[in-house]
Amino acid sequence: MSDTPAPKKSKKPSRTEMRRAARSFALQALYQWQMSGNAVNDIELQFRMDNDMSGTDLTLFGELLHGVPANVADLDKAYEPFLDRALEDLDPIERAVLRIGSFELVHRIVVPYKVVINESVDLAKIFGATESHKYVNGILDKLAARVRMTEINAKRGK
Fold first, then answer.
1. Of 8, 33, 49, 145, which residue is most buried, by most CB within 10 angstroms?
2. What does the pLDDT look like over 39-81, one tens digit per residue?
3. CA-to-CA separations, 49 to 18, 32, 43, 100, in angstroms, rounded
4. In CATH, what number is assigned to the domain containing residue 34?
């Protein structure tokens, strides 16, 4: 009999953790797309080859990575009225986070608006400048009030 403990089995990531990983990878990939202008398919291939994405919701990753560029003009137009500066003056990380959050608010209505905002704020806290999460929160909260009014009113009992 050995005194060596059996290796611990790594637990399978939860759906929430897998979605969080998908958003994190999507943010990094979209940042690369914004900065390099490379084709999204090339960036996706690179990410899948260079990263361990076994704990990632690959469907969500692909949906965000392809959906944001396909709808970028409409997404920017959706949140731009709430900015306090020109769209071009946004930090590239803030812009990518706002685009992901806007995409989810507009195109992924099965995700509660509070989840979309919280996940976007978390991305800004991890990848953005010191106070960018507050800025992202304010912009997406205003956008949610416009595009998810029915959901917000239902939560308030109206």
1. 33
2. 999 999 999 999 999 999 999 999 999 999 999 999 999 999 9
3. 18, 15, 10, 23
4. 1.10.940.10
| CB-based contacts of 87, cutoff 8 Å, min separation 6 | 76, 80, 95
Residue type, 45: L
Q: Is 7 exposed, middle or buried (0-12, 13-18, 19+ CB in 10 A)?
A: exposed
Q: What is the mean pLDDT of residues 23-32?
A: 98
Q: How far is the first Cα of the chain from the last one, in angstroms, to the nearest whole number?
A: 67
pLDDT at 1 over 60: no
Mean pLDDT of 8-31: 91
pTM for the whole thing? 0.90
Domain boundaries, position 101: 15-156
